[in-house]
Amino acid sequence: MTNIILNADSYKASHFKQYPEGTSQVSSYIEPRGGQYNKTLFFGLQMFIKQYLTTPLTHQDVDDAKTILEAHGVPFHEAGWRHIVDKHQGLLPIKIQALPEGSVVPISNALVQVINTDPKCAWLTSYVETALLRAIWYPTTVATVSYHCKQIIQQYLAETADSLDGLEFKLHDFGARGATTEEAAAVGGAAHLLNFMGTDTLSAIVAARRFYGAAMPGFSIPAAEHSTITAWGKNGEKAAYENMLKQFSGPGKLVAVVSDSYDLWHAIDNIWGDELKEQVEQTGGTLVIRPDSGEPVEVVTKTIEKLMAKFGYRINSKGYRVLPDCVRVIQGDGIAENSIREILHTMKTKQQSAENIAFGMGGALLQKLDRDTMQFAMKASAVKVKGLWHDVFKDPITDHGKRSKKGRLAVVHDKVKGVKTIRESDLGNRENLLKTVFKNGTLLIEHSFDEIRANIR
Fold first, then answer.
1. Domains in the chain, start-ordered, CATH in brackets?
2. What is the pLDDT of residues 65-87, one digit of tens each?
3. What is the pLDDT of residues 134-146, one digit of tens each?
4. DSSP state, residue 381
């Protein structure tokens, strides 16, 4: 599935015949036009470039595409693709400008701008829209969701905890099994790791290491699942828990144990809080109890209350109650941005510090989002016809929210409005934040994972 000719919508194949005669260049841009958030965290372009744009097309790729597209019922621009293979050694003659990955900018700003560099390939700019837009909207949206979740958790830690220690581990990626593909899990999971360092999505670790040179961008801990607990039988529930402590707990260690396979409240009151209480307190590590069913707000706050009744608590400097270091809670069922906010708000009203809880987020992190979450689009904004540049744009009378930008674009820091997209011709002596990151098959600017995290900060 690496043939870029086939990584497109079917109708793109006919577009080479649709531009005005004499069209030599088409310039397009990608932006989030609106949606759920007022600012976005840009990420993911480098992964796409390395995976798809640095490997040359071959005549065999052209042959394969010709066979498929002609049988599919659409025209095939064989001469154009043969030209790319012969003249450009199979590397796409396009230039991509982009903001630095990790930029947090207001919506309705250009994140990426694309233009063809060979006048015989004006059709190519929009041909790559399908693949390039998908490569941007998905990881950027995941990164943005994760970023805003972090702001919520940080707010409640600031209000109810002594410090922000451990913030990077307060939202754990549980999304691998809920992603549509392994590639989606890798790309989306890597995006989450810009904001947090907890993940069970191994594909994300591989992606961050492969495409961004990360040493070890995320971490996990030993954890039980229902199969490993129920394998002991209902009468063996205590033995299953005891085995988890024996195998994985110890000074400075964390171990997570799902505790609602049968009766969560019995598990807390009688097993963890009575029969195994001394072991939990003396291991020198931290037991993280995981509820996995019920209404999240109610279950979390009740779990914490019951644990405090058994293990005690201290009052921190902000006046909120904190469990002893030997026990914490992670909620991974029903977690989304709104439920995180609701849980932490309710905990605060009950004088429970946000220090007591971590979250695991699955489908809502990597799957329950789409291109319209932030209304992403790639649109042509300028064309060069018979040597002259012309603005192009859309402005549907039925939806002015889909109005697109005009002209060749630049992005600048504005003293009043912050980051702002302007015409390139209005740049003057200001710095254009859109930098050329790719040209004619070569990655020109490479960001490390640490650099991207630093850009966010």
1. 4-140+373-456 (3.20.140.10), 162-366 (3.20.20.70)
2. 999 999 999 999 999 999 999 99
3. 999 999 999 999 9
4. E
More confident residue, 402 or 386: 386
Cβ neighbors of 124 (< 8 A, separation 6 or more) are 80, 84, 92, 93, 94, 116, 118
Distance of alpha carbon 343 from alpha carbon 300, whole angstroms? 7
Task: State the pLDDT confidence band at 147, using cuts at 50, 70 and 90.
Answer: very high
According to DSSP, residue 24 is labeled E
Sign of dihedral through CA atoms 318, 322, 324, 327? negative
Contact 311, 326 (CB under 8 A): yes
Place of tokens 């069913």: 293
Cα 37 to Cα 52: distance, rounded to the nearest angstrom? 29
How many Å separate Cα 151 from the centre of its chain? 15
Q: Note whether 203 and 182 are within 8 A (CB).
A: yes
What whole-number distance in Å separates Cα of residue 57 and Cα of residue 45? 20
> What's the pTM?
0.96
Provide the 3-class DSSP secondary structure of residue 41: strand
Best CA proximity match to 130, nearest among 122, 120, 138, 142: 138
Pairing between strand 327-331 and 286-290? parallel
- Which phi and psi angles does 444 have, rounded to 5°? -95, -30
Outline where 161-295 has alpha helix (H). Answer: 182-192, 202-212, 226-230, 237-248, 264-266, 277-282
CA distance 204 to 214: 11
Residues near 415 by beta carbon (within 8 Å), at least 6 away in sequence = none
Which residue from 79, 65, 58 is spatially nearest to 121, judged by alpha carbons?
79
Please tell me the distance from the alpha carbon of residue 121 to that of residue 114, in angstroms, as a whole number.
13
Instruction: Quote the CA–CA distance of 404 and 356 in Å, as a whole number.
Output: 46
- Decide: helix, strand or coil at residue 12: helix
The DSSP secondary structure of 258-307, one letter per residue, reads E--SS-HHHIIIIIIIIITHHHHHHSSSEEEEE--SS-HHHHHHHHHHHH
